[in-house]
Amino acid sequence: MKLIHALAGLAALPLLASAHFTLDYPYSRGFDEDLEPQFCGGFSTPSSGRTPFPLSGSAPVLIDSHHPSAIVGMFISFDSNPSNFSAFNQTASGQQYGLLDPFGGISGTGEFCFRVDIASLGVSGLTNGSVATLQVEFNGGDGSLFQCSDLVLVDNYSVPSNVTCQNATSSTSASSSAGASASGSTGAAGAKSTGSPSSGAGRILAGSAAATGLVAAVGALTLMI
Ligand SMILES: *[C@@H]1O[C@H](CO)[C@@H](O)[C@H](O)[C@H]1NC(C)=O
Ligand SMILES: *[C@@H]1O[C@H](CO)[C@@H](O)[C@H](O)[C@H]1NC(C)=O
Ligand SMILES: *[C@@H]1O[C@H](CO)[C@@H](O)[C@H](O)[C@H]1NC(C)=O
Ligand SMILES: *[C@@H]1O[C@H](CO)[C@@H](O)[C@H](O)[C@H]1NC(C)=O
Ligand SMILES: *[C@@H]1O[C@H](CO)[C@@H](O)[C@H](O)[C@H]1NC(C)=O
Ligand SMILES: *[C@@H]1O[C@H](CO)[C@@H](O)[C@H](O)[C@H]1NC(C)=O
Ligand SMILES: [Cu+2]
């Protein structure tokens, strides 16, 4: 019996890891774990229904992480159909702006909520009804993964009451027994980076100024997996 349980535990581990991460709010264009390493998670067409999102002020972005530790950053485009990463750091008229949320580390699996403010980017010309696309980049040690959500920016918008912004994480025994604990990296959450996105796996490690502790933690995970 014990042996069977041990084997079942081993078999379950790769399934957990292969689920990568999901974008739960605002709503994703679509999720296919095999395509998640691609631009917008492999979904290249904007959703027919865009999620209303606050034009200004604090707004929640919810993800669910299936890796014991990861680096997460968020980009936004104001094009109606952004087709490459360049559209996520400048407007069609050429105004450049930064990341919607800088790369930072998270540890634990489960729901994470990040508060973002589109007005904080200082992009001119945005008004009630402007469209945008959010792109979340996530690296849990098996390369950069992406999810997109198509938005319509609404003045004075309040998100639905069933969208609860909280971190409901759980440390699994699998993560601690695998030695993948990210202790030491949590303090670096929110480490600033001005890196720009690209589709290459491992780009974060090469291209961002994220704390070296985080880079080391993800590097260790990569070796394990
Ligand atoms: C990115 O896409 C835009 C149109 O969406 C295009 O004008 C531009 O040339 C593209 N840039 C690259 C580097 O492919
Ligand atoms: C915008 O993104 C493109 C593609 O990743 C990159 O070549 C360019 O340097 C970036 N510009 C800025 C200002 O970050
Ligand atoms: C703001 O934009 C939303 C979404 O396009 C629209 O439903 C709403 O009527 C607009 N409000 C005003 C005051 O124009
Ligand atoms: C948002 O609220 C402000 C202050 O109450 C108001 O002046 C403005 O007209 C509102 N905007 C829309 C689009 O309803
Ligand atoms: C909130 O409720 C709507 C309508 O029932 C549902 O479609 C949506 O998935 C819910 N969102 C979350 C984050 O639970
Ligand atoms: C959830 O955790 C992340 C990473 O530590 C942090 O940036 C974020 O502010 C937290 N969210 C809440 C609602 O506490
Ligand atoms: Cu993964």
Automatic annotation (TrEMBL):
Domain Copper acquisition factor BIM1-like: 18-169
Any single Gene Ontology cellular-component annotation: side of membrane
Pfam families membership: BIM1-like_dom (PF20238)
Keyword Signal: yes
Matching InterPro entries: BIM1-like (IPR046936), BIM1-like_dom (IPR046530)
Membrane-protein topology: Lipid-anchor; GPI-anchor
Chief site of localization: membrane
Highest taxon of the lineage: Eukaryota
Signal peptide: 1-19
Keywords: Cell membrane, Glycoprotein, GPI-anchor, Lipoprotein, Membrane, Signal
Subcellular location: Cell membrane
Entry's transmembrane regions: none
Coiled coil (UniProt feature): none
Entry-linked PANTHER family: COPPER ACQUISITION FACTOR BIM1-LIKE DOMAIN-CONTAINING PROTEIN (PTHR34992:SF11), HYPHAL ANASTAMOSIS-7 PROTEIN (PTHR34992)
Protein name per the record: Copper acquisition factor BIM1-like domain-containing protein
